[in-house]
Records
---
Amino acid sequence: MTLPPIIQPASPRGQDPLPPPSAEAQAFSQALCERIVTAIEAAGGWIPFSEYMALALYAPGLGYYSGGAHKFGAAGDFVTGPEMTPLFGQTLARTVAPMLAASSPIITEAGAGTGKLAGDLLLALEKLDQLPERYDILELSGELAERQRQHLQTTVPHLMDRIHWLSALPDSLSGVVIGNEVLDAMPVELIRWQRAETPQVQRLGVRLEVVEDGARFISAPAPTAQAASAALIDRVRALADKYAWPDDYTTELPEAGPAWVATVAQRMTHGALLLIDYGFPRHEFYHHERTGGTLMCHYRHRAHPDPYYWPGLQDITAHVDFTAIAEAGFDAGLEVTGYCTQAGWLMDAGLLDLLAAQQPTDYNQADGQWVRTQHAVQTLLSPAEMGEFFKVILLTKGLPADLRIPGFLRSDRSHTL
Ligand SMILES: C[S@@+](CC[C@H](N)C(=O)[O-])C[C@H]1O[C@@H](n2cnc3c(N)ncnc32)[C@H](O)[C@@H]1O
């Protein structure tokens, strides 16, 4: 069968034009589009949005994370906390150290990006005399694993024998499992609610629309055969009633994130799971004014809502429903030991003390590193930037009840789940 070529718009739908990708990147995206078209045709013309998102981000060798897109840093599409300053990893070391001492000396990091957090965390734990015996990196992308290996080989060559790469969660986990901005990169289901006389719940997904010179991906409700099940309708109706959704409301159901947390919880013998990400507790996630959901894409440091713009060349994310994460962990045997804003956690764990202990002269003045560090701390803490918007959740199993965990000693308790 000849597949129609996917036509790429100059701009995400409803947005100003963005810088066009290189010819090589465009070819990459076209190859991924063919893979997605094949999946749509094989499924009879429609796939759920979660399947589209999984392919766009993780199709082997072609997806945004599994392929060659640059992703992180100034030359990429977004910057994460650990990429901004080593103080992020150094502060995290203060939180992690007592938990390692009280459980097992093993860290498992999910989705380690460039390896920056791993390097900073290991160096800081070495200073605290709390080096883990193993640092396992769970990485789905071969390209990122290689980037991490090169970064760590340069920054912590003497610790390389402790670092191991895993392609799947181990059957048994102990020590501390960490994930920064991992949950937001997990596929979500999209649904639309309409409060007609008979309330309607549509599963949203993706189909091809034929246009003049080819085809393009568009969002579409599921065909009858794949329509919402009775259980899904009941679940959505309960949310709609509880949070007083207006007549037309589109949102996400974050299935993969909570399922991943449940698996970690089931496999954890003793230790902790610490997750940092942007999101809200459920009552804010499903707030009646959030009528379009939280789905967001990142391309060259511009955020926009069009998931069909150059598939494979942009990140697609959704905010995290932290109540769902807490419930998934709790139901599978973990305790919810802490939940606060990123600013609350960083301040409580001593980020500002670490900053105060540094001198401008510690930095290379010529390249503006000191100013960049000050700016990074401001971005991490400011309520208008990452400070409030990002949350930190700590789920534990079998840790002593009186264990003092910096980051969660006096943190802001106003953020309830
Ligand atoms: C936005 S990046 C964050 C990278 C890094 N943690 C940082 O803060 O810079 C999201 C990462 O999560 C990873 N990821 C998503 N689902 C995952 C899963 N089920 N297991 C492990 N990693 C996953 C992706 O492959 C990607 O590397």
---
Amino acid sequence: MINMTAPSAPPFAVYVHWPFCLSKCPYCDFNSHVRHGDIDEARFVRAFETELATTAARVPGRTVSSIFFGGGTPSLMQPSSVAAILDSIGRHWTIAPDVEVTLEANPTSVEASRFRGYRSAGVNRVSLGVQALDDEALRELGRLHTMQEALDAVGVARAIFDRYSFDLIYARPRQTPGAWAAELRRAIGEAAEHLSLYQLTIEPDTPFAGLYAAGKLAVPDDNLARDLYDLTQSVCADAGLPAYEISNHARPGAECRHNLVYWRGHEYAGIGPGAHGRLNIGGRRVATETEKRPESWLMRVEAAGSGVTVDERLTPGETADEYLLMGLRLAEGIELARYTVLAGRIIDPQRVTFLREQGTVEMTKTGRLRVTQSGFPLLDAVVADLAA
Ligand SMILES: C[S@@+](CC[C@H](N)C(=O)[O-])C[C@H]1O[C@@H](n2cnc3c(N)ncnc32)[C@H](O)[C@@H]1O
Ligand code: SF4
């Protein structure tokens, strides 16, 4: 169970997407772009402020419980830009006294040199994309930093922020369980309170997808990937960092509150190119999406006040399915009573019984439905089975 103090206002999160990177990693399909010329950062910041104002007019009066600068590489932004965006958020909404403000950072020395500036701007948590504690793997992943640089950046983060996390990618080419266990133990030694551990996914239309199709990228087969997943769970749990979400591990109380907003089906505004939002307007859940191409987003915002290209009221069934899809990623699972309210009907008891008999889901005494340890590797199939 996640043990956190109950906030007085319902959680409301703001996601801000900075869409630029210094180079494109060959496995990545995030909305990230490389520009060889200068980026007019001041103009982008003005556009973020404009889109914030437009969004705040639609959902006024909220208390912001978390803010997340994601990317792309937000650690390429000047601290003054981050400060300006945070000020703008504070002008439109109330900021909770214990607000969590996370910034995703790439662990190069140049970016780490800005950490103090981010803290002065109001950032209180960083999430570092370490990806591997192995130089050969970092090269193969196309990263611009070495293991030592990444560890140095983690050291800077530790000295400046009370809270930090880092990401690793596992199930990499040629990775053995022994090597991964050693790397993971080392990571836990550096991590303190939170780690995001992602299995390498071959995303369509990436350079890795091309190499994989050509037989030039040997990733672990399903059996080995399963062994690596199981190993990840046991090493982290033994070290006091159990999974609270399928790929996220934390000491109890140190979970990323921002991501919990998504997984628990709360409300969030998505600002910037390609950002997604979920707003509660007039008793309905509204899904928003903005233009992905940075310069097109900028022009839309300058012309119309927002880069929103998708603005859809979800049906009760869609809202309930999203709650299921996101909530079952969490170890705590979903509240069946809330599903019933959202969907306007109960979840199919026969399907639940079938999955319980298979051992992939279980019911808690407090009326929650959750995926079991052995069910997690089959999460997609479980969700597909339960969704309407
Ligand atoms: C938005 S990305 C990156 C943030 C930052 N730009 C960086 O690279 O350090 C968030 C995380 O997703 C993970 N990720 C991205 N693509 C992935 C893939 N194909 N397979 C597994 N994990 C992936 C990486 O661990 C990455 O740190
Ligand atoms: S993994 Fe991070 S640094 Fe690499 S392209 Fe994607 S967003 Fe940019």
